[in-house]
Amino acid sequence: MERASEIEVRLEILLHDLITQKEYVEFLIGRDGEFDLLAASSIRRAVKQYGYGNTSIILVLPYMKAEYRDNEQSYLSYYDEVEICSESSEAHYKSAIQVRNRCMVDRSNLVVCCIQHKSGGAYRTMQYAKKQGKQVRNLADCQL
Q1: Which one of 113, 116, 125, 139 has the minimum C-beta count within 10 Å?
Q2: Is residue 144 part of a domain?
Q3: Range of the domain at 103
Q4: Cα-Cα-Cα-Cα dihedral sign, residues 32, 104, 85, 118
């Protein structure tokens, strides 16, 4: 990921505002890219730092993965909840992540992403979110 430290700072500012200004924040997160991992660790750090207790970090898997099955306790100690998206678990494996991403968008009020190229699955998900009228924050953009 290009400019990872700059993107992390932008994410921390956004997390501060969400956690300190909202009554409750449910973070739905994937685990299929660099940004997912950066976001998960930043959210955990912010939750610990602000200590508001008004958050939940939910890992949404597109289908049952061997990595999760073999390390379930480790996942459950890191995330507040782990769920398997039913729609994507029934989809063809090549489209499962895209189906899961759209389901997460449908459940969200705000979609936070880091899109640096106008192609790929994350870009298509951002376009879907905009089409659904969701508020989208692309941390790769120069302004927040």
Answers
A1: 116
A2: no
A3: 4-138
A4: negative
CB atoms within 10 A of CB 112: 20
DSSP state of 79: S
pLDDT per position as a tens digit, 84-126 = 999 999 999 999 999 999 999 999 999 999 999 999 999 999 9
pLDDT for 23-68, tens place per residue? 999 999 999 989 999 999 999 999 999 988 899 999 999 999 999 9
Nearest alpha-carbon partner for 33 in 10, 13, 62, 12: 62
> Do residues 115 and 2 lie in contact, with contact meaning Cβ atoms separated by under 8 Å?
no
* Closest CA relative to residue 69, chosen from 82, 85, 56, 86: 82
